[in-house]
Structure formats: structure tokens, C-alpha cells
Design goal:
Length: 246
């Protein structure tokens, strides 16, 4: 017998979001490790924030949100807020209840910069790595170093000649400004991005056209333990690797 598709939502639900997360989900041990590291930083958080005035985003939840952005390669804070809004797994990880409002992306970004400027984010990652070492996830017997290209958010249209005077016209509204760069020779020596000065023109081995990238150097043992953002030619890879090993 066919069951009719009557879609009448319930008025009340009674369940815990954690009950929907599989017992063997990879985020469960990560959440435990992260919360232990954040608990050890409680005194540092207390010194950063005032005891009165309007409450800010809890730094513990902010750092867990940033960790989700890295783990799931979410392209921006605005997209991260959207994912947290409808994804119960993300809500459970950062500690938001079903009815808790999601933060404004601009407010989230400002609070993120505050933690980065105070070296809180770096200290948090160091504690997570130390916790991973305690759990036996790292090994001193073997390590690897590799370099990779990360796609930057700068578009090819944003690369303009370095000696070009700034335009007095107001920026175009809506879509990107029309730029005809076909047939124009561009290189990092002559062109730079107007929206992301750290982006560089690069081409992967099998790519036909160059695109904007940033360069990262990774050091890992069993898991990645250090990451350095830098732009350097191949001969500097050994020197950068020695910096990471220190």
C-alpha cells in the first residue's frame, strides 16, 4: 500500500542535535580535543574581554567555526555562516542550539581579526598539535615537506600594470568591470592584483592558462603540524623547510 505524502510539519520537536551525529563521525574526537585545548586557554580569554558591556561572540565558538572553515574548505566567512545556519553538524560542533541565531559575517570577521592580532589563533593551533602529540598522532621518526599552490580569491581582471595610474572613475556596481586583457603579456614583475596584493600569477604543470594563487609550504608527520604562507621559487624550498623544522 502506498503511503500518502502528507507534509504537515510538527509544531514541537524533542531531540538533542548530538543524537543525530554518528558515533564514529571524525568530528567527534576532534571536538573533544579542541574543547580540551580551549579550556586550557580560558584565563587568556578572560584577560582579553571586559567584564561588562555587550557580549561578543564567544572566542571558543569563533575558533571552532574557523576550524570548520579549514576542515571543509569553505571559501568565506559569509558562506561559513550560511552553512552553520542550516547544517546541524556544524551547529553541534561550534556549540549552537537549534534556535540560536547565527552571527553576522562582518561581526564574525572583526572578532576573528582580533584573535589573530592577539596570537590567540596561533596559540590555539599549537595546543591542538600538542594534544595530537599526546595522543600519539605524531611521530618524530619521519616527516615530510611539500609545497602547493592555493587558489587566491583575486580574479584575473584585477591584475593591472604596476605603473598604471589609479583610475578616477568610481568602481562599477554589480558585476565586475569589463577588462579586455586578451593578447596582453602579463607577469608578476609587471602586473599586480588591485584586490589582493599578495596574490601572484602562477600556472600548474598541466594547466593551459595562468590563474591567481598564493603559495603554501606544509610540514607534516602523521598529520599536518605547520603551515607557512610564502611566495618563493623552487630553489628556496629547502630553506623554507629548515625554517619550519625549527
Amino acid at each position: 500500500m502506498r503511503k500518502p505524502d502528507h507534509q504537515q510539519p510538527r509544531l514541537f520537536y524533542s531531540f538533542c542535535p548530538e543524537s543525530l551525529i554518528a558515533d564514529d563521525h571524525p568530528l567527534r574526537p576532534i571536538k573533544t580535543m579542541v574543547e580540551e585545548s580551549l579550556k586550557a586557554m580560558d584565563d587568556r580569554f578572560a584577560k582579553m574581554y571586559s567584564s561588562f558591556a555587550r557580549p561578543s561572540i564567544p572566542p571558543e565558538r569563533l575558533l571552532k567555526g574557523l576550524l570548520l572553515q579549514v576542515l571543509f574548505t569553505i571559501r568565506s566567512e559569509r558562506a561559513l555562516m550560511e552553512h552553520i545556519r542550516f547544517n546541524l553538524l556544524y551547529r553541534w560542533f561550534v556549540g549552537l542550539d537549534l534556535q540560536d541565531p547565527v552571527w553576522d559575517p562582518s561581526t564574525f570577521s572583526k572578532n576573528r581579526d582580533r584573535l589573530i592580532d592577539a596570537d590567540i589563533a596561533l596559540e590555539f593551533l599549537k595546543k591542538v598539535v600538542a594534544k595530537a602529540d599526546e595522543e600519539g598522532l605524531l611521530s618524530a621518526a619521519h616527516f615530510s615537506v611539500d609545497r602547493t599552490l592555493l587558489e587566491a580569491w583575486a580574479s584575473l581582471k584585477s591584475f593591472r600594470p604596476k605603473d598604471e595610474p589609479p583610475s578616477e572613475d568610481p568602481p562599477a556596481q554589480g558585476r565586475n568591470e569589463e577588462v579586455d586583457f586578451h593578447g596582453e603579456k602579463r607577469s608578476n614583475a609587471t602586473h599586480a592584483s588591485t584586490t589582493d596584493p599578495e596574490a601572484r600569477l602562477a600556472k600548474r604543470v598541466r594547466a593551459k592558462k595562468p590563474s591567481s594563487h598564493s603559495q603554501a609550504m606544509c610540514l607534516w608527520k602523521t598529520v599536518t603540524v605547520w603551515l607557512s604562507m610564502d611566495w618563493s621559487p623552487k630553489p628556496r624550498e629547502p630553506a623554507n623547510a629548515k625554517k619550519l623544522l625549527r
